Amino acid sequence: MKQTVYLSIGIFFGIVMYKSEAASWFRIYEMFQFGSFHMYGIIGSALALGIIGIQIIKKKNFKAVGNQQIQLTPKNKSFARYAIGGIIFGLGWALAGACPGPMYVLVGSGYLSILVVIFGALLGTFLYGVLKDKLPH
Amino acid sequence: MNLIYEPWPWYVAGPLIALIMFLLLFAGKQFGMSSNLRTMCAVGGAGKAADFFKFDWKKERWNLLVVLGAVIGGFIASQFMSNNTVEINPNVAEQLSIDYGITSANEAYMPPELFATDQLSNPFVLLVLLVGGLLVGFGARYAGGCTSGHAISGLSNLQLPSLIAVIGFFIGGLVMIHALFPLIF
Fold it and tell me: Which of B77, B82, B138, B169 is the most buried (most CB within 10 A)?
């Protein structure tokens, strides 16, 4: 039952990413050229509602299904890892024109070349795991 | 206007993304699309090479189901709900065509110059896709999240680290598009 829920959320996410064009290389390029409000509007409106909703969840102390705690783990405090990691991610986001969600959506849309990007992302993740202790965090 | 067939405007898409985040929170999980890469590495046996991949990945199977769903969603949307063209700002489209010879804006969803399957025989294109992916995977794990994990989940929870990461995402993206693209393409 729970499996179906996660699968359905994924399908919904995939449709939203594709239909909003957030999975399109062109939209990412356009965003970094400040050519349109579209991507900023998507992120901004998701964020505005997200902030309001999470404040309400915290105030009312809502629980997740099965009476478990809602997962709002605070991020570890640091500067280096977020700044350096963030910049590296941004370089790749703009170069491939895809971030980790849309990559999978594009597989379903039949862009087989995106498998190379996904392979690269797996390789990058693996490389981070191997080098983790040598990097500033 | 045909809401199913036309591209969804930002004020439809943004709230739906917030809804996805809340659905996952109420399912007892967190919205973030890059941790599944770590899970896949662990499933593939990366735990033998680094402790980072030694964890009980069976508990993280749910995020692989979300991934599978995203693939199916992409299939449904592209096959039945879209004419698969993206119209961007005409000035940006013209600039892409003049500077980089990418002429497919307004005609395709992804530029065939980079994403047509037969372009994979071009070593330059192959390298761009591979390095792009590598930076995304490495950067997302180093920063502890990607656009969904930091820009949506983290910022919604008013996390300062997420703000640092998101500023980093944009610095990296702007440097790539404005400083490196003219050198690469």
Answer: B169
Residue of A nearest to B115 (CA): A113
Are residues A49 and B7, on separate chains, in Cβ contact within 8 Å? no
Q: How far is A30 from chain B (nearest CA, A)?
A: 6
Listed by start position, the domains of chain A span 1-73, 74-137
Of B36, B44, B172, nearest to A94 by CB-CB distance is B172
**pTM across the whole model:** 0.96
Show the tokens assigned to B134. 């590598």
- Which strand (E) or helix (H) includes residue B81? none
Average pLDDT, chain A: 96
Q: Residue A20: name the closest of B3, B22, B115, B169 by CA.
A: B3
- What would the pLDDT profile of B100-133 be if each residue is shown by its tens digit? 999 999 999 999 999 999 999 999 999 999 999 9
Q: Which residues of A touch B78 (CB under 8 A)?
A: 18, 108-110
Assigned token pair, B149:
């994990």
